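Sharing in case it's useful to others searching the archive later.

Someone asked me privately for the predicted structure of Polyribonucleotide nucleotidyltransferase, so I'm posting the question and my answer publicly. Question first, with the sequence:
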Amino acid sequence: MKKPILEKSIDIAGRPLSLQVGKFAEQADASVLGRYGDTIVLVTVVCGPKTENGGFLPLRVDYEEKLYAGGRIKGSRFVKREGRPSEEAVLNARIIDRSIRPLFPKDFPREVQVVVTVLSIDLNNDPVLTAIAATSAALLISGIPWKGPLAAVKVGLSNGDFILNPRENELEFSHLDLLVSGTQKEIIMIEAAAEEIPEEQIIKALEFSTPHLDTLNKFIQEFASPAAEPEIAYEIPEIDPALKGQLLRFIKENFPKDSLAPNHKVRDAASEEFLQTLYERFEGKCSKQEMKRLFEQELKHVMREQILKEGKRFDGRSLDEIRPLEIEVDLLPRTHGSAMFRRGGTQVLTITTLASTSLEQLIETMTGEETKRYIHHYNFPPFSTGEVGRLGYPKRREIGHGALAEKALLPVIPGEKTFPYTIRVVSEVLSSAGSTSQASVCGSSLSLMDAGVPIKSAVAGIAMGLINEGGRQFILSDIAGLEDFFGDMDFKAAGTEKGITALQLDTKTGEITTETLSRALNQAREGRLHILAAMNQVISEPRKSLSRYAPHIISLQVDAKKIGKIIGPGGSTVRAIQESTETAIDLKDNGTVLISGPDDEKVQQAKRWIEGLSQEVRVGTVYTGKVKQVVDFGAFVEIFPGKEGLVHISEISPGFIKDIRQHIKEGDVVKVKVIGVDERDRVSLSIKQAESDKQPVF
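And my answer, the predicted structure tokens:
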């Protein structure tokens, strides 16, 4: 029997948001069509067969960008089908995953796949907001155990006023781009880019979002309830209570203290040795997976109990203490900038490379093409955790961490007019013991300064954690890997001395309030300032000059109408300039010319040539020129780089000239006066009139 089509809508930020179920993808366990303005997404949810729960929820979120959604066809001449997910698609999939994952039961044994397909897109309505609303509704309808509803909104900030779900043109002038998802009670996920916003303003933005999240959650619940399927029942095999008691007793009585040692190698070795003992002692009585789960349960309990009772962390630090810092710059001789940042057992090497703007990254999106001149890449090789693994394309996590570090530094990157370079920063994680993304932020700031990039100020990042137990909350600064794994929150905060530039919040319990986040942000600020002070002791401002291996680039502005002349027929003129001066020239339609080369002398030579081509030749002006060629009827004189004129034989001297070469020869420097410019821009010059002219010589 075909299910009825149900639809419901609500006004959010002056635009209608509608959800519809029952019309599309009926084979899926649930499918919801979400529409916000002219942005339309289809969300499908399918629950797979029972799988062995390996200690994590088998959830997969795919975000499908379709170019037809924006009325576009792929630019490649050879491939017209959409290919690998773009970085934006990966980031949006992560946002949805991070929003919904904490609300699933951890022991749910069946695979869940959420597929978001963007069918139509406009510039004013972010599809990820629509996707989260539709995903929330689809999960409620599917019957999958899930503690929703959940909704998301964006908050902008302009002229001191908060903007709900800002349009694209509003975001251009906004100092804040905050995406927050949450239930009717708690904040679940945050993703934010900011222009050095004070912590107090961030909290006000979160408080501004709360009533709108409440409204949306009620709307989603009311929409989904009539169509909801009965909740899927599932059973988790329980071991015999008596055997479980024996296992827990053995684990507690023989708990290896070194499994919480500060050094992760000691910690891992102690845990592995104890697990082998446990497996041998209870062989055949219980699965290894269950024994490992019970041991990790006790490990988590001991770590958290030490914080709750003593206020001390497993590595001996106080709650707000930062791990020891080690900082170096200028490590690699041939790179343009380099830095090493170590915090405890986390070590990141960051390298900066500069190039001309012709090497900007071109990005094809559903709404058009974009360029990016500041690029941050983050690499997390398996050896950084002492493991063996495959190297290859970046995984979702690497793309996400790279984007976060890029977002953190973007507000301090100089504009193209000030610094006409493409900037690529690569963070190589050499050792991981928690908070590698924020170590990448610190390393990037140091590396950019070492490269001489005139960033506005230094940027540092810190990851904050939370232990939430029995109504008591303990906020941890600079969390290590174990605290991230067994804690209740991973809250990354990056910024300058003035304020926040990037935020990312992931939770596990869903019990996070604005009051908790306010405390965490204030504590994070103290840690950030401590780290910035240590960074400033090594390098406190950008170097005054670039590396001698970096390209020299200058920018000049010419009349936009002259760009065609600089290019020349079929590009012949600009090619000649580049070949002659060994430079690369990037011409913009607005008249901006960027010249890059191996040294300043060649760049200046190309600059003079282009300035000559773009100059207006005015009749009556006197120039000092160089004779380039002598012919029987006259001489060709270059009056400025790239511009020649003809001095007819009759204009060389007042008297009759029998042999022109007795009066003038190639290489002579002469004064000439412009006496005419024809419709084909050919210039007529005179030497004899210039000699009698008393005006200034150019």
